[in-house]
Amino acid sequence: MFHPVVKIKVYNEDLVFGPGLSMLLGHIKETGSMKEACSAMGMSYSKGWKIVNRAEKELEYALITRQHGGSRGGKCEITLKGAALIQRYEKIEKDVQEYTKKIFLEYFPEYDCHADSQLGEVQ
């Protein structure tokens, strides 16, 4: 079935955040570990830190708190601002996807699998 795909990415001069950071932070929230979060995404540990550090620098606030290793290993937790960023990003992503689907079907009604009507013309 034909369908539109839109990805929300926020830039300053460079990419600040987008679906990758949102997903990475979600995995960190679930696992408490940068290493496990990166592994779940098939991403190198150093790339994960690069993404988080770049975003924190641009946003000028911490997204995660870091507790360095030791005998039990390190630990990461999402900050309140980090959790709020994920929540707002997921909300805007949902809203944009819904609007995109709606407008797509206005321009391309023939791809609406739920419509019983014939091909309409764009006005």
From TrEMBL:
Organism source for this protein?
A: Mediterraneibacter hominis
What name has this protein been given in UniProt? LysR family transcriptional regulator
Report the Gene3D superfamilies cross-referenced here: Winged helix-like DNA-binding domain superfamily/Winged helix DNA-binding domain
State which residue ranges cross the membrane.
Answer: none
InterPro entries linked: Molybdate_resp_trans_reg (IPR051815), WH-like_DNA-bd_sf (IPR036388), WH_DNA-bd_sf (IPR036390)
